[in-house]
Amino acid sequence: MARGLLIFGSAFAVFGAVLWQLLLKDLLFIVLGVGRVVQPLEDFPYKCRKITDKRLTGCEDMWLDDQERMLKKVNVSARREGGTEFLALSIDSELPDGSFPIRAINLDNYVSPTGDSSVDILGFDAEVIDKSTVHFYLTNQRPPVDSQGKHIDATETGANATMDVFEHKRGTSSMRHLRTVWDPETLYTLNNVAAVGGGAFVATNDHSKSLGLRRTLDDYIGGGGVTYCSSASACFPVTPPRTFKMPNGLARGADGLIYVPATFGGTISVYSLKTFGEHMQPMFSLRDTINVGMPLDNLALDGNGDLWIPGFPNGAKSFKWYENPVKNKMPATIWKIKKIEKAYQVEKVLEDSEAEILHGITTVRHDVKTGRLFMGERTQQKKNPRLVANRKFVNRLRSKAEQTQWDRRASYEMDVDEWDTINEETQKTELANRLRIPTEDLHSIRRSGSTVQVTFDLRNARLHVHKKPLYQDVGDDGNPGTLYGTHAPNVEIDPYIGPYWPSDHAEESTRAEALSYKPILDAPPAYMDLPWKELLHPQHMITIEEFLVYFPNHVARWPGLAAALRWSNLNRLFYRAVRIINLARGSHQCQRREDQHTEVLPFQMKIERAIREIDPGYKLFDFPHENYSKETINAHLRQRPRGQSEQQNLVCTLQEAAGYITGINEFEAHCPFSQFMKQFQPVFKPVPPPSMPEHAGGLGSLEAYVRYQTAAGDNFIAWPAQAVQPLSEVCQDSDCERLECEKIHKTEKTSKKPDLSKLGNHNKNKADTQVPAQACNQGAACHKRECTFDHPGPWTDTSVQLNPPNFQVHCKQQAKCTDPGCNRSHMSWAWMHENKGPVGNTNGTNGELHRAPWQKACSFETRPDGCKNVKCAFGHRGPKTAEDVQVEFELHPRCNWDRECKNKRCNQAHSSLATPVNGGGRVGNSGGGGRGRGANSGAGPPRGGGGLQAPRGPRGRGRGRGRAN
User: What's this model's pTM, rounded to 2 decimal places?
Assistant: First the structure.
């Protein structure tokens, strides 16, 4: 018996000790404040007063703009129909009544789930981008809705929490929505946010769960954590979900550390943040802990680098205040935290034990310039009757009655202040406006103690919400844009324009915002300068449409070019522009819009941002506008985007711009510049865009490959990252001279042949190898022996326009190919030149020599002794070319006479001077070579002409009688 009592007593003592340590100790001494001395306001050297204005009701968070001298604040009022109101107070212009001038800041480009622009803000932070731009991060507790945009019970689903980012230009009365971050796995009970730079932020979840018993217990045993989100909206929890006892308004200090207060823990945890990439888990390390010993709310940083935070000294009064924040009062304490070297000094600055002035304080801002303190409270004076809600004035509707099948009705309750002072008609009007339903749909209003139950018909609760299109184009407002030149009315319909329900519209806008910050692929990058001399040449001046074809990133990023596009004011301008860009790159008809190079709404956002660099107040449909004359646009035409150095010496060449065009250029037939650019397009065009999912490398999913190959048909060409090396079966005889040999001959070690058995049955011996590959951008001028991309044949006539070439089929003859019309892929010319003898072609009735153009000049050409490389694949001056003749290697093809050229004014490219000349016969059907009697016979095609001297070559089959040298 005694032993049993001893065991029971020991277990009870252990349980009591654990309970004391984990729960009772903090509850008694930190939350309730047992034994804490609370001082009156008179003990502190501050003179405090209230700023009474009905628009300032329910201030949850504030931010002081020291540069603009404006106090930005969010106000939550259950009586206000539009949700949270974002206000700006001019703190240096005091009015006679003691208040300050107030300016509302409107929210542009934002659609809430209810179909309007209302938000429900709990906390926010600001990131200063430059002298005129500030980004605001708002924790938005949006009402939950279903797929049709109808309200659903929040007690069943939890809060619809998002982080919305807005851009505000100082001095203006609006801010534009940039993006919405929604991640219910990591952002589920959002409380507050701290911007950490570069578009990234950290946010607190004040509970470990959004619903259930665990959420209720969090207030007693602790719960909640911190989440990090990168600029790409990739979010990661950086602390366990039960690290804190209700984490609240965190802040980023002047030292770069993250300070996280715990409301019921009475501490401030100090963390360091180290990131490794937008899509990688960051490192969030605890550095220190500041013990305040009092429930805390929102941290704020001042201009000196000090931290300010309000506290709640009397827990009992705080709980009463939560039950009825209008009739009861909650004392407040203001703390200042100063960092001195590696230690923290905690100082009590203000306290009001009677809550006469400091009542329900949630945030405080210190004006370093004047020494004033601005504090926000969640309640207003009692003389202003209004609807109020529990906890932070976010009006929460709770279902009380089950829906019936014959009448879809529900009962909702909300707390009401001085309800008896409002007559029945006013009650109906107020409730109908708040619930956004017609007044006649209110069936009953019944008072029950301190609450009022309202019954109404849900079928008419969202009649005001309508679908709307994703974007507006030129002419959609009933005023058609211009049509000139060859532009015809575009009857194509954008399948992705919608219309969308408000919630879907918001998601589409968020997606488009993220895409608008990404460059257009398969196009010259915007940081490169343009070859303006060639673009603005009088004989072939480029048009704005051709800018879209060849330089879409420059049009979307350079302010002058963006303004020029908008100034054209074509009917359906933006859809036309996107269509031109995608057509030129072969992605206009892609089955998935993710495979298109750009989309309309992201492109519109790019254009708007670009033009705002020369006109900060510009909106997309401000045209016609007197500020945008032709002279104004020409003055800004060459203006680089903000942030790009004007000292950049990288200039995009016309060859590079033309090399990206793999699709249809609609202006090639009638526009001089496009006709001029045709000469720069290689015979084998670069790879067009994929219709395949991205992979890290290799062929990727064979099943996906076959699916998209089938969808693309005969024009399918693989993406470079997924291209298989153009290798077929390799001949083991390095000295093989058999013309009938179908294998590839290469002296270098080859990689393993890819297994394509699942892609179809192919006869490896008698059929051509079907391998998707990428054409070499250098074409016939490729000088890399080991290049694994596709090239023209050694005898392919350059006058033959291959559009598109058959990239997928490899020629069986390779270096032995003598077909002038062969459109199949071959090894590099440098390899064939070294291993298989002559590289050249004689064809045509007149025996005219056709060779592929060299696009680069030999760097040894300028030396006194010239180029000595017999196998040099670069261009050279002719053997008789005069010194005053300028050879334009990139603009003209290789000379037909090559080393036998005797023209002193020839400005075309030739072989190296060290290369031996042809046989003694004339070039044509009876050229030199044939059965030469010299030590080395040149290998020639069946139709004449001896080739270049080769170390060892087969007996030529030419009909000529001349000797080979």
Answer: 0.45
